[in-house]
Amino acid sequence: MATKIGMMDSAYFVGRSEILSWINSTLHLNLSKVEEACSGAVHCQLMDAAYPGMVPMHKVNFDAKSEYEMIQNFKVLQDVFNKLKITKHIEVSKLVKGRPLDNLEFMQWMKRYCDSVNGGVLQSYNALERRETSKGGKEASKKGNTSHSSAKGSAAASRPQVSQNARKNEASANSGNQAAHVSKPPSHGITAYDEQITTLKLSIDSLEKERDFYFAKLRDIEILCQSPEIENLPVVGAVRKILYAVDDDASVVAEAQVMLSAHQKETISHSSPISEVPSDEKLSLDTQKRKNIINLDVDVAGITTLSPRQRVTDASDVHCSGSPLMTY
After folding, report:
1. Is the dihedral of CA 242, 247, 249, 254 positive or negative?
2. Fewest C-beta in 10 Å: which of 44, 73, 120, 328?
3. Do residues 240 and 225 touch, judged by C-beta distance below 8 A?
């Protein structure tokens, strides 16, 4: 069961026209835009079509206008999801706003899920009869039937008008056609504008989502930089310098790199265990060490050449001089 579908799944590449055709043919409606289903009533009946009798249609409001009424429909839908153990998250706050992209994505998921139930085959589902128990369901059914009948009536009415114009002379026909072109705006031009507006709305919604995503990432970095354990580190200071830069200037990154390089050099100079000694002082120290070693060797050689009596005499001289090293 397709309860979890990734964003790169083929379900999210289904176009608006195919989605609208599926909704209208399944529920006998006449929606012209996907966002017209933002009240949640259409979603509830689509689930009722997939699982007949599962949705309490008497609680569904097809005449919902306010966000409060729409939320009640989505509560019914959420209860059905819970019964069926469907883990799909419903972003109600975005759907009730009527945003085209959010409603399109959720309806794409609905189509994929309903197609996965019994292979998408509906067994003798009477959408009009099931909708009659809902609030505003009869009106929704009438709108669908009226739109179909009006389309047929307009096609039939155009035929006698064409025959009447054919009986007129050529001059009056040409003038009538010119007046008609001037007075009536071309319908295909209006349709093209509607499609452009819808495309721009989808593009705006996509850009807003991308903006919110990256802003959330920057906010997470800012919170991390404010942690007491790392807020005094040089690398954190460099990150904050870039993060809080007002102007979009490349020199900010260069300044942050200079800060890190300066700290690295300072750390190396302080951490060196060997202090540098001038060459003159080092030479004098080596000379003094050599002299001490020579004197020590001479003293040892002189002591070894003395007789035992001379050694005792020297020792007594040291004792008389008051040295604390002799204890007679």
Report:
1. negative
2. 328
3. yes
